[in-house]
Amino acid sequence: MIPIRLPFPDIGPNIFAFELFGREIALRWYAMAYIVGIIIGWIIVIRLVKQASLWPDNKAPMTGEQVSDLVTWIILGVVLGGRLGFVFFYQPAYYLANPAEILQVWQGGMSFHGGALGVLIAGLAFCWKNKLRPLQVGDAIAVATPPALFLGRCANFINAELWGRPTDLPWAVVFPGDAAQACATVETLCARHPSQLYEAILEGLVLCAVLFWLGLRRGWFKTPGALIGAFLVGYGTARFFVEFFRQPDAHFTSELNPLGYAWQLGEFGITMGQFLSSPMILVGLLIIWAARRRQVA
Rounded CA gap, 74 and 115, in Å? Predict the structure, then answer.
């Protein structure tokens, strides 16, 4: 029986492109995902802070004007943290040898875990500057983040990057470019898991639904920090799971390590994504436990 292979959609990485003064000007799907994701997140937080009854003592953690100011800080945290996270978590040796390329964000290479650290630092700094309660602000940011993750992973799929491991499942996709070339080096099909879409569904749609249900239906906004913890647990679990189907970065794979484990002991190993997601899950559970205990006390 010949397995079904889904052809990769002919979309292209650019929404539009034109030449101006001898240089190509283009708007990429990945950039649009960031822009639209941030706008959706801003709208969500604005709507949340307008509903004072959601929050402890029926008082929203910040004003609409402060939300708009926070967006600028978040953008800086995402871009700087995401880029530096990719540099130091995934390819430190390469960028130490080529430091000029660290700032070339347009060449690709962003880390969610680095971006999350960047947002954490930026958010804490913003709260300190404006004398806001960081746990409540963090809860609002956590609920507003999954739509951006969904769009970002869809953009990864359109760009044919971060593809999955080879498979013969009916929904396997034949990715072009490097994915096809990598398949040609092994005795397997050139059809792969669309792991970007797995992440879009789990990290985006499912996590968004869970956080909104906890916040709006279960009253978790009144327990400062609980939704931050739920986000960390949800994202960390989803990413850890999808790593079983996602192709590791090329610099982690070799003949002795074909599965791309970052750390391996005998037959057991974990990828870099699983290694970085594990503390997120543990910290998230600890934050939820502390938040619920504080509420009971």
Answer: 9
Residues 77 and 121 sit within 8 Å (Cβ to Cβ): yes
The structure tokens listed for 45 are 């937080």
Residue 163 is given by DSSP the state -
Give the amino acid at 245.
F
Specify the pTM. Answer: 0.85
Closest CA to 190 of 135, 247, 235: 247
Q: What is the predicted pLDDT for the residue at 187?
A: 45
3-state DSSP call for residue 297? Answer: coil
Nearest to 49 by CA among 37, 35, 63: 63
Least confident of 30-44, 196-210, 225-239, 249-263: 249-263
Q: Average pLDDT of 149-159?
A: 92
| C-alpha torsion 138→230→234→8, nearest 10 | -40
Q: Which of 149, 142, 137, 140 is nearest to 238 (CA)?
A: 149
Residue 130 has pLDDT above 80, yes or no: yes
> Smallest Cα–Cα separation from 102: which of 86, 118, 89?
86
Beta strand spans in the chain (E):
6-7, 14-20, 23-28, 173-174, 263-265, 268-270
Distance CA 267, CA 224 (A): 42
Cα–Cα dist 84/142, whole Å: 21
List the beta bridge partners of residue 166.
Answer: 192
Residues 6+ apart with CB under 8 A from 256: none
